[in-house]
Amino acid sequence: MANTQQMANAIRALAMDAVQQANSGHPGAPMGMADMAVALWGQHLKHNPRNPAWFNRDRFVLSNGHGSMLLYAVLHLTGYKLPMSELRNFRQLHSKTAGHPETGITPGVETTTGPLGQGITNAVGMALAEKLLAKEFNRDGHPVVDHHTYVFMGDGCLMEGISHEACALAGAWKLNKLIALYDDNGISIDGQVAPWFIDNTALRFAAYGWNVIGPVDGHDAAAVAQAIADAKNSADKPTLILCKTSIGKGSPNRADTAKAHGEPLGAEEIKLTREAIGWTSAPFVIPKAVYADWDAKVQGQAAEAAWNASFAAYKAAYPELAKELTRRMKGELPKHFAQTAVDATITAHSKAETVASRKASQIALEAFTAAMPELLGGSADLTGSNLTNTKATPALRVDLAGEVVVTPEGKIGRHINYGVREFGMAAIMNGVALHGGYIPYGGTFLTFSDYSRNAIRMAALMKLRVIHVFTHDSIGLGEDGPTHQSIEHATSLRLIPNLDVWRPADTAETAVAWAVALQNKNKPTALLLSRQNLAYAPKTDLGEISRGAYILAEPARVGLKKKVQAVIIATGSEVQLALQAQALLAERKIAVRVVSMPSTTAFDRQTPEYKAEVLPKGLPRIAVEMGVTDGWWKYGCAAVVGIDTFGESAPAPVLFKHFGFTPENVADTVQAALTRK
């Protein structure tokens, strides 16, 4: 019989020792949640330490990621490749035990949880992916997709507004395999939370449509384990288990105080805590009996072996389905993807339509969603504006019994109505991508990327293939005014490392942008799209678009047979301005090259030789974009036609003239730059 108290104390000891050695960290939460971890990891969690990426494992998310030593301790104790040396190296350079858990760094860590509230939101995405894959692939007698998503979270996660967005959707989607355990200790950094956090959490979650259990004694592992067992019986609701705990449990002088939250206990208090909990082992030493109680390797291998056998039977009965599920869980694109991308681009080029780039995006999506069943779209209550829906992506719906509704053809809905929840949508998409099986994309207005920005940043940090469709990308949206007109947003998004940003100028560039985004297996993408119609820019070569910038028009295009004197760089809707300015300058006998730069981030990755070919040294460069000018000076521009103020409310043509986005002003700016040269 396992000694659950000693199992929990092992977590407490490792947490306080690692934080003390690092002289940095949060010992209180791991010490307080230790018994909860014993209940979940010791009795319920389906996982295999020898294969952390096993597909049908349960997912565990530590949403209150500052308590990372809880997770590191449990991963070490259960048998993951996280040796004690890594726990000793907690929070140090290049260790696998960062201050907050990081996926891809530490085996067994499912998501990077730093900003509070995003962990529970990622978990909602994971649970959604599981539910949809199960509906899409499971067959009678063959439940090959069948696992739970568990979350530990604290007061901070619940105070963050994103938890409202995500948990409301979890209730609407009836994600019954999502089980969240709330570490209700009543303490945050500033002390007792009662003066500023008085929510009735049980009623709040009941109102979302959740099953609520408790409060239970969070230090009674058997009671928590029973609550989890009850939660697993929920047929149509996610479950919240309220666990009353003491932060810093076991510490005689720090328990139930804010002092336990974010600083080492100190050598003397650790000594007293060891005595109080009866832990006699030296720092970073775990008794063999405790290791034996925690060891999950044999059980994990047996669980995976049983699933492998069931999947073999599934594969024999449904070979094509098994092949498709395997492909999608590996994140591999369909074999015909390249041809789909080429066809979409060539079709756009041959049709040469004048449409808004948001419409160009929908046209491209029609081709890609029809060819790729893993594309899971959505919009934050702006479907008719973002144009993220297609013929192949009916709306996702869940019936009153909690079942995913299928079309008459037996297909699931693949377009999600997220409601007005931009931040929640972005972090849920991260969870979907982390789970695997789908490539998520979602739409809103570009100016509202401010709401979702931190989740976008987390996607970039985690190297996730998530695609953000941002429409209404400039003052070109017109009368809605400065609250909706994006000024600094393109530049600010380009500053996020590992985020690809595309602002295409026409249908062909948009198709290429989508193709590149879908191939970006290890980075998210932001597509910045216009509301207003954009004329097609004639091209002689489509092959260089994917490089982020290319020579669109030489002076010969406008009948000028002279050596290039200057280069106009433009993005998106401003490419047409550049072409018109080129024609005006030709009348003045000034030879200008027009470079379309739909993606500065992709262009910046090109070779020095290619960059010099597109932007020759010694020629004045003038950038044109309806946004702040700061980001353009790195290209050695002599001038930038941009906007460094907020916009105004007026029809788009009036605004263009008011802010100087006219062919005449661009031409005059180029001529002035040449004069200065």
What do you see in this structure?
The protein is of the alpha/beta class and 677 residues long. Helices cover 42% and strands 13% of the residues. The chain contains 25 helices and 20 strands. Strands 10-9-11-12-14-13 form a six-stranded parallel sheet, with helices on both faces. A five-stranded parallel sheet has the order 1-2-3-7-6, sandwiched between helices. Helix 21 links the parallel strand 17 and strand 18 (592-596). Helix 1 (4-22) crosses helix 3 and helix 14 (337-351) packs antiparallel against helix 20 (507-519). The termini are far apart. The model has no long low-confidence stretch (mean pLDDT 97).
Number of strands: 20
Q: In this structure, how is the largest beta sheet organized?
A: 6 strands, parallel
Structural class by sheet pairing and helices? alpha/beta
Q: What is the overall shape?
A: elongated
End-to-end Cα distance:
84 Å
Number of helices: 25
Tell me the strand order in the biggest sheet.
Answer: 10-9-11-12-14-13
The unreliable regions are none
The overall pLDDT, averaged over residues, is 97
Report helical residue fraction: 40-55%
Rg over alpha carbons? 28 Å
Strand content: 5-15%
